[in-house]
């Protein structure tokens, strides 16, 4: 669903980042930022470095091969159809309630996103849609979805958390709504919280929906390989809705926070071709794939 929203003040981030999922390998050291500085800037695990001085900016319309770096953006970055080789690094993007996405990739465009913080009010999602390679992101305070996931989409070693859903937004951490292929969701912490109140799918609902909403409600696209591996998950009505028709979907090594959901950890209609070593975080209790 889409709800109309006004501009909002960006929420405050949590004071400290969580430890990475237990299965996460150490992230490779990031290259030093070219922003002038008297001392090297320490790269954080998630998001833009706190001690990096950013340049205020309005929205950016990317061109092929562009490196977008060191900006404090109020608005969005747009990567048009056919615009490839774009890199977004060490930036903060704040939603003002006017743009659909914080990072919007369209058509056959292609972008790599590294150490970027995305926060605030976007009318659709913090990021989307296809041909995106993202790592070490900090996505928080979303009024709608954290990211819309399409073909050729990879998000790793990122923190998606503390959502502030608008009424009727059906807010998900990561959302798939059609058949997709070549998707990797690995070693992320996705803890979107519960949001507000569930009122039975009423327009006034302002609860979160799911940390992972990976389904093929829309009859379009082609199914392929989807890997969901080593993530720490919590929040939502069900924390995970999973099942894309015809997909080779591997759901392995994920941990769920017990009780951090309205109904259950996994929706009873869940589907996966490979389901292995998915557990509750408090006692390593195995979570079986629901039987139909």
Give your account of this protein's structure.
With 292 residues, this protein is mostly beta strands. The protein is 0% helix and 39% strand. The protein is globular, with a radius of gyration of 18 Å. The strands form 2 sheets. The chain has a 17-stranded parallel β-sheet that branches. Strands 2-5-7-9-12-15-18-21-24 form a 9-stranded parallel β-sheet, with no helix packed on it. The protein has strands spanning 55-57, 60-61, 67-69, 71-74, 77-79, 86-96, 101-105, 111-121, 125-128, 132-135, 138-140, 145-148, 153-156, 159-161, 171-176, 183-186, 189-191, 208-215, 225-229, 232-234, 238-243, 248-252, 255-256, 264-266, 274-276, 279-280. Residues 7-16, 23-36 have a biased composition (Low complexity). It comes from Nonomuraea soli. InterPro entries: PbH1 (IPR006626), Pectin_lyas_fold (IPR012334), Pectin_lyase_fold/virulence (IPR011050). Residues 1-50 are annotated as: Disordered.
Q: H/E series, N to C?
A: EEEEEEEEEEEEEEEEEEEEEEEEEE
The biggest beta sheet reads:
17 strands, parallel
Whole-number mean pLDDT? 85
User: What helical percentage do the residues reach?
Assistant: under 10%
- Number of alpha- plus pi-helical segments: 0
Instruction: State the end-to-end CA separation.
Output: 27 Å
* Total number of domains: 2
Rg (CA only)? 18 Å
User: What is the number of E strands?
Assistant: 26
Based on secondary structure, the structural category is mainly beta
Form type: globular
In what range is the share of β-strand residues? 35-45%
Task: Give start-end ranges of low-pLDDT stretches.
Answer: 1-15, 23-38
